[in-house]
Amino acid sequence: MALTMSTSSMCMGLSRFQAQRSRATKCTASTQPLRTVVARPADDTFKARGQWGSRRDLYTINTRNSTRAHDAVRAINLTVSAIAAEEEGKPKLGFIGMGIMGVPMTLNLLKAGYEVTVWNRSADKCKPAVEAGAKMAQTASEVVEASDITFAMLSDPEAALEVATMENGVAAGMSAGKGYVDVSTVDPATAALIAAAVNAKGGRFLEAPVSGSKKPAEDGLLIFLTAGDEGLFAAAEPMLEVMGKARFFLGAVGKGAEMKLVVNMVMGSMLVGFSEGLQLGKKAGLDQNQILEVISLGAIASQLFAVKGPGMIQGTAFPPAFPLKHQQKDLRLAVALGDELAQDLPVAKAANDIFKKAVGKNLGDNDFSAVIKALQED
Questions:
Q1: Using the 8-state DSSP alphabet, how is residue 375 labeled?
Q2: pLDDT tens digits for range 333-375
Q3: Nearest partner of 344 among 354, 353, 334, judged by Cα
Q4: Which listed residue (135, 255, 260, 373) is catalytic?
């Protein structure tokens, strides 16, 4: 099938994704149906080369700014994928869980032209998605019945398993050929139980926990850590491309959960260490803003510290991008995985204790950067 990409289509795509940014000056991305895209400097411009089957097209982007060039490459990639999906017929999608992450992920799918059916236990939380064009189902099983591929973003392993297996749940609506992609953060054992329930009804299962919080979800810049049915991974790639900047297929069910727990264990431990440093510096009479600046210029510079540091120093409000109670849950699950695999995790255990202390101080619904308050005197 041949495709001609017009300048207007490219510009439309670029406008649509212009808010998405990357520091990369060279980008290689993979998606369907645009197989490869490369951005690289060529004299005063960047050139993006896309391959459509056996056909190659060259797009010249008149900018010296590598970030804008990268945006244009992503726009070309997504716009071509959207045009192809329209020609071939887009799958009907479902999304279960309309929370901090689920709503913006659904909105991005709607913006990309997908038909999406949603469900949440608290029906009022579906309102933003419904106002944007989503259909609302009365049960989780209705979502699955109406959809070719259903995504779910739920709060914890208990909720994820219950929604999958309860009466009128995911498995109840599952049938041969349908796909279920669980983007919640759960432990490997829970992922396996959900997979078994879906597979027993002839469905396909992919675990796909995400690295990223509210803002990356809004901007379509999440990282998907997938495992399970590789065919479903291929089928879901265009949707993952809409919602994220990267995706990894890691193997059998459970590997996605393990990767996510490793990543969030490191993140939680880092934030506790950073909190201790800020508090120690304050007690020593140092300017906390100068501490942040010094860290930003050295080997331990981190986007996590740069983004969370100012709010932690001010210390008056912690609007949740990633709720503290969820970080504590992930640390708990990581420590449990360590016990199961006979791997000692003394730093993660200590960090988990600090987060538990913060939850005990009624900070669980705050952003996880509020953990610094667990180290402060009452």
A1: G
A2: 999 999 999 999 999 999 999 999 999 999 999 999 999 999 9
A3: 334
A4: 260
